[in-house]
């Protein structure tokens, strides 16, 4: 019986050491004011609306994946807004310096200032795919955003990835 336990233990170590390691990454993403952005009032109570938009983004401090820096990209999102808060999600894509792309699914909670601009936003994300050298990418992370006076948002992004 001891030999089976030892064999199972050694097998689990072999499998764990054969699995590719996750690599940490981080960066700062600057996203413009949404354009277009559509707000549809729900009509059931004041301040309750559904929002759909698209934003263009640039890496001011590029996130690096396998030595290749992120360049620019964008996001398409949908949120349910109630008063000065919303929650929702969307899809983000980043074009890397070599022309490859990575795709991310994200979920966020957002607060708005008295002028209706984003004050803070944050949540989680995970890779859904990539092209070229980024094909088969896996990983996940977090994002924390702070609104700027011009309606843009600066996000601190961190996470980890692995490539096949």
- What would CATH call the architecture? Beta Barrel
What is the distance, rounded to the nearest whole angstrom, between the alpha carbons of the first and last residues? 37 Å
- Total DSSP helices: 1
How many independent structural domains? 1
How would you sum up this structure, described in words?
This protein is mainly β. The protein has one domain: AOC barrel-like (Beta Barrel), CATH 2.40.350.10. Helix content is 10%, strand content 62%. The protein is built from one helix and ten strands; from the N terminus they run H-E-E-E-E-E-E-E-E-E-E. The chain has an eight-stranded antiparallel beta barrel. It is elongated, with a radius of gyration of 20 Å. The N terminus is likely disordered.
Fold blueprint:
Layout: H1 2-18, E1 23-31, E2 37-41, E3 48-61, E4 64-65, E5 68-82, E6 85-96, E7 101-112, E8 118-130, E9 138-147, E10 153-162
Antiparallel strand pairs: 1-3, 1-10, 2-3, 3-5, 4-5, 5-6, 6-7, 7-8, 8-9, 9-10
What attributes does this structure have?
164 residues, 8-stranded antiparallel β-barrel, AOC barrel-like, mainly beta, disordered N terminus, 1 helix
Short description:
By secondary structure, the protein is mainly β.
């Amino acid at each position: 019986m001891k030999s089976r336990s030892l064999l199972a233990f050694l097998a689990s170590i072999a499998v764990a050491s054969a699995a590719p390691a996750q690599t940490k990454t981080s960066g700062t993403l600057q996203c413009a004011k949404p354009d277009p952005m559509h707000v549809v009032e729900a009509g059931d109570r004041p301040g309750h609306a559904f929002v759909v938009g698209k934003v263009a983004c640039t890496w001011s401090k590029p996130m690096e994946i396998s030595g290749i820096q992120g360049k620019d990209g964008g996001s398409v999102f949908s949120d349910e807004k109630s008063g000065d808060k919303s929650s929702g999600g969307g899809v983000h894509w980043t074009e890397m310096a070599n022309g490859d792309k990575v795709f991310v699914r994200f979920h966020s909670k957002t607060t708005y200032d008295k002028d209706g601009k984003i004050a803070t936003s944050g949540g989680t994300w995970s890779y859904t795919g990539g092209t070229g050298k980024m094909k088969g990418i896996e990983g996940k992370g977090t994002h924390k955003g702070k609104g700027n006076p011009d309606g843009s948002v600066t996000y601190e992004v961190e996470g980890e990835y692995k490539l096949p």
